[in-house]
Amino acid sequence: MLRFRAQVGLLSLLVLCASPALWSCNTAIDTSAYDAAVQASKDHQAKYQIIDDTIIQGYLKRHNYTAADYQRTASGLYLVTLTAGTGTQVTAGKQISVKYTGKYVSKAVENTVFDTSDNAPSKSFDYTVGITSLIEGWKEGVSLMRQGDRKLLLIPSYLAYGPSGYGPIPPDTPILFDMQIVTVSP
Fold first, then answer.
1. Using one digit for the tens of pLDDT, what is the confidence trace for 143-156?
2. Which of 47, 62, 70, 96 is deepest in the core (most CB within 10 A)?
3. What is the enclosing helix (H) or strand (E) of 13?
4. How far apart are CA 156 and CA 64, in angstroms?
């Protein structure tokens, strides 16, 4: 029994000695590096909102589109209606079929195609709205379309692939999709 009390006493002494170390775990974590990275990301996006808008406005001007020809959303996405559809509105949960061609917006490479539905077996991209993971500019643009619509979606980089880029699309690159909604499920 004496041996047991000695062990309990030794254990109590260890806990007492370790307590300050355990209490120190309750101190605030220094998040200054994280906070600085978040601020740098916000600053980067604010900078590219201006740059991308200038590039997109240049594209519109080069192609003789006026303010009457396009819609600019609050996010910075531009839509130019090429053909107005009269069919079903695209909404979440609908199965849709889209024909598209993706190009760059910058003058030096604006005729370069980086992706097209022509490469798909059905010559279209079929998916369920709201379920398939897509870039923000595509999701927003499609939600503003209906069956039969053909529109140019001019997408700023921060609504596309951002500072990372993706595949053939360099970082911070505004892009466009010439997009036609072929079918929308009833």
1. 999 999 999 999 99
2. 96
3. helix 2-24
4. 19
